[in-house]
Write a structure and sequence with these properties.
The chain is of the alpha/beta class. Helices cover 45% and strands 18% of the residues. It has helices spanning 38-52, 59-83, 99-104, 108-115, 130-141, 158-167, 184-195, 215-229, 243-252, 282-291, 356-370, 376-382, 384-400, 404-425, 429-439, 452-465, and strands spanning 5-9, 27-30, 92-97, 120-125, 148-152, 173-178, 203-209, 234-239, 263-268, 274-280, 295-298, 303-306, 315-322, 328-335.
Amino acid sequence: MVCLPYPTFLKSPTSSPDALSLSAVGRARIHPEAGSYNDHYRQIVSKCIQQSQVPEDTKENKQLRKKFMKQGVQLASDFLSLQLKLDVSITDVEIVLASTNIVESDGCLACCFLDAGCQYIVVQVVGEEGLKRALEAIDVSRLPRDRIVLDYQLPPNKEFVTQLTDVSLQVGTICVKMHEESTVSDDCSDLLEKISKWEQKTKLVVQIGTDIVQSRLLNQIVANISKDMGEDKGSIALVDPTAEQLGLAFAACMKTDREDGLYTTVVCTRSNEALGLVYSSKESIIAALQCGRGVYYSRSRNALWRKGDTSGHYQTLHRLDVDCDGDALRFTVTQNGDVKAFCHLNTLTCWGEPRGVRHLEGTLQQRLVDAPAGSYTKRLFEDDTLLRDKLVEEAQELSEAESKKDIAGELADVLYFAMVRAAKAGVSIDDAVMELDRRAKKVTRRKGDSKAFRIKAGEEILGKKS
């Protein structure tokens, strides 16, 4: 994929209204000890240390340790979503953790934040003994190497390159901080050449302080680094950028063959359904990052198009992505409004009414409002016991089905009753997609045995129906 820039917040991502939506570029680095949230972060550290100090020698201690683990993950989840306003289900969040805190918690702190939805743990190398402490923290964390970023804060030198070669087997990404504007591109090219010769595939993140690079040169430097990086070799981290700086740097990594300089843009839902095809300009990308909404460029009006300003059908922006060729954008959004319609014809998509599961969801939501007389769906909405019993019954039938046709049929039944339950509770398909994406980032896995009390309850329900 194309090498793109993302923000690293030395300040909080909520420090200014301009910073709130910058994580929509799909990735963000957080320094939790910075800003006004240090107290909340210290609570998480304390809980993880408390967890690590409980031995696993008895059943009671194992349960206590599990209890502390769940409490720590909940604290971390609240910290990320409520305090920092980050959607970890769609943004790849990097969390910078102090080596001493990781070691004190025997690695529990690192696992805690990954289980809470972070994509990467960042371990910094600061000072002469920094690398030794960082490697100790990485060792006790016992994490997959592709979830670890080693952040080297010292100026690059020959010894530095030798050190990086030695640690490449233990981390999936190495981040280097560029200290002088004049050496940024040259240092990056040298590092990429050396990293490409390593046996273990390792990505590179180049961190650039927006305060050390003149604004007029930043986009060119970012474009040069992106070109040198090539496909899927790394990224560029901009320190505390404005929406304008990040938006222009993002566009500098793209290309277009259109005479008007616009970028073809596909607008999608959280579950990757295409809502429509539009166009973006550098200015509209900046505007979208500033307000956290779907903002595009109208070719007919030759002006920015803030979706929903006139129709009320505004969009919440979740993520920007660039395709593999670097010449097309994807906006991932949630369509809002009294009628969830992207199209001017008042349909969700510009390709008419949806089909399949999305069509079922729309039908069920409509049944909640005005179900016709004799509607079975309305009966399910009004009878909690019936809905519960049907969910148990259809799940059993799915588990016992054997042929492909029967399994598909029973799966359709389960989906129907499950979505009735979801629609009644105001839960959407996109809500479920968010939860699946969040769970995919966890590193702690449950044993997964069946629960005897649930099996017994299900048997009692099925027994009444037989």
